[in-house]
Amino acid sequence: MPDLSQLVKAYDVRGVVPDQWDEALAELFGAAFVQVTDAAAIVVGHDMRPSSPGLSRAFARGAAARGADVTEIGLCSTDQLYYASGSLDMPGAMFTASHNPARYNGIKMCRAGAAPVGRDTGLADIRALVERWAETGAPEPVEKPGNIAQRDVLADYAAHLRSLVDLAAIRPLRAVVDAGNGMGGHTVPTVLAGLPVELDALYFELDGTFPNHEADPMNPANIADLQARVRETGADIGIAFDGDADRCFVVDERGEPVSPSAITALVAARELAKHPGGTVIHNCITSWSVPEVVKEAGGTPVRTRVGHSFIKAEMARTGAIFGGEHSAHYYFRDFWNADTGMLAALHVLAALGGQEGTLSELVAQYDRYTASGEINSTVDDQAGRAAAVKEVYAAREGLELDELDGLTVTAPGEWWFNLRPSNTEPLLRLNVEARDAATAARVRDEVLAVVRG
């Protein structure tokens, strides 16, 4: 019996192939997905990992055996799959393990219109069916199985993105893009074709063994080549995508990383220019700059917990036009509330090319504070160490404490920190922001002294 408790996560399926799962299990997931969503038709895509085509096709077989017609779009980014789910109005499944090492693979599932499927929205039911069928045998095929057909949606996906951001009149730009041998190498050339952007392609060869570096731009080591190339060539901007290309990271003309919070604020201002008075979602560890810029642009900022399911739920509830996270996930109402790094990248290119200054000059207005970045501490007792921190700061006057997501402590106008437990590891995650570097360092060290005892 496979151990699905290790395979089915809060928002997706993810594990080592073939140790934790294989094509036989993928076929059961396909059948369960159709049964839980009650879908007459679904769309399926996959990334460039060696195991992805086989797993994807097995899932399609399982889905068809339960009576659903399956549209296979083949190689695609995760946001390209969301595009297909939205534009075709079908539930969808994307085979990818995002930034994980090559031996991993997974499934990101959504309902029609790219609505997420997570533990509380169908994934627990899918897991229960797969567990039952893995023990008792696959369900009997339905009387009329579905068909499996292929369709290429890359050009339509690119056209849709370009319809949302006008780049026709921008000044010529030189951009280095690091695809990390991931799906950005598949999508970027089509999306940028014919635009006034001179593309310097770094690691665009699709290779799920990741021969150059891991496709995880959150790790500073993985953007070192991008930074060096931007400095060497005098490019205007550098952009890095993760393995399934749903997140984008930006470096400026000096090769310096641009905070995802600054990108969130920049894109929010542009979206508010299109949709005056709109609502923008941000999580509790994005910079103070984000709600400030949103208010200055006439919008309404709404703060929520970290994680795409919370962002997407708040976007649906409030009708928000845009949402952004510190992890470089960017969500758009014009993209079925789904996250798309490519659309965020187009916004940054349009903003940069629409004025004469450098990127560092442009983003300075959106990057107003000093942040620590996320600092992880391994602890034996997450709850106990977090309670100790709360006790220290609750005793101090003039501070505000809230527990929307972990513990956030704020000294109004001066600094804030958030301390959150990891859901999957014995870690506490600390983020600090302050008006200056010295204050940020002081607060960081004070909190870590309590956390680490």
TrEMBL record:
Domain Alpha-D-phosphohexomutase alpha/beta/alpha: 6-133, 156-255, 263-369
This protein's record includes keyword Metal-binding: yes
Cofactor: Mg(2+)
Keywords: Isomerase, Magnesium, Metal-binding, Phosphoprotein
SUPFAM superfamilies per record: Phosphoglucomutase, C-terminal domain, Phosphoglucomutase, first 3 domains
PANTHER family per the UniProt record, alphabetical: PHOSPHOMANNOMUTASE
The Alpha-D-phosphohexomutase C-terminal domain, residue ranges: 374-449
Name this polypeptide is given: Phosphomannomutase/phosphoglucomutase
Superkingdom to which the source organism belongs: Bacteria
Lineage: Bacteria, Bacillati, Actinomycetota, Actinomycetes, Kitasatosporales
